[in-house]
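Fig. S4 source data, part A: sequence.
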Amino acid sequence: MNSIYALNRSELNQFFQSHGHSALFTDFVFDEIYKNFENKNNDLNLLSQKAKQQIVENFDFNLPKIKQAHESSDGTVKFLIEFEDGASVETVLIPFFKKYTVCLSTQVGCAMNCQFCYTATQGLQRNLKANEIIGQYLIAWLYLKEKRSNHSIKPNVVFMGQGEPLHNFEELKKALQIMTDTKALELGPRQITLSTVGFLPGLERWKELPSINLALSLHSPFEEERKSLIPLNAKYPLKEVLAKLDTLPLKKRQFITLEYLLLKDFNDSEAHAEELSKVLPKEKVIFNIIPFNPWPGSRFKRPDLEAVDRFKEYLVKRKMRTMVRTTKGDDILAACGQLKSSENE
């Protein structure tokens, strides 16, 4: 049986039209599904018995299961989410001021083999389906409502969990359609940020997605050095990726975030900052320094605060708009680059 959360509004409309219902009926049902997702059986009490029967005979309302939940000292929550086939991913609920953000995974594992990322150590097992992506969001939001009721508003979304989102383009696209649909989750595109290591085939199709925010995992301005960190750079060099980013349409006051994982004694020199100022545009981009978050077996080390501040000053001196990302959840391996489908970590 198919998951009801796997259907965008167009697909649901096709189903209902084949059963003699109108597009207006589809709108009503789609709205009710996401209003009532907290009800395990999602009874859809406002529908006729016949309409409910048509739905329950064809779809289920099952959400993935929380296999484990760990809470950090800073309020971050890391979930190990299990799907129907037994595969699992990690999803993170992150507090930011008066709101929360959900860090979603798009694949079980990852094929990109980035040397700084814990997920790479498990390889790619499979892509997630749209309902599994949506399910992570609904579970995290439900947890927020139940455990932290004073923060129950819809959390924002970052696709920065396990997997390269653009490597799972079709299911990502469908999930985004549901997230931004005014009759479903009704998230604004600006509430959603997608991070990519520069998967060019996905960037070529970027216009098919809602006008969400884009972040590029950059990490070095030097092609060979970046290739040692991100093997994909051998196939899609940084020069080509940056050229493509330059063609993407941006809304007013919308920026591309350039993520730079700062690794001790590796990519934190003034020479790196100088090269960055040469190859990167200074308009329409925000430079985001991310101090490395260690994980078991990692060969890189986290720079000290002085090194982070010094590198930031190198960039600011070169008139680059720069910020340092605050580390969240590193005590439970929930920070950037620390996720993996495993228990008891």
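Fig. S4 source data, part B ends here. The chain has ten helices and 14 strands.
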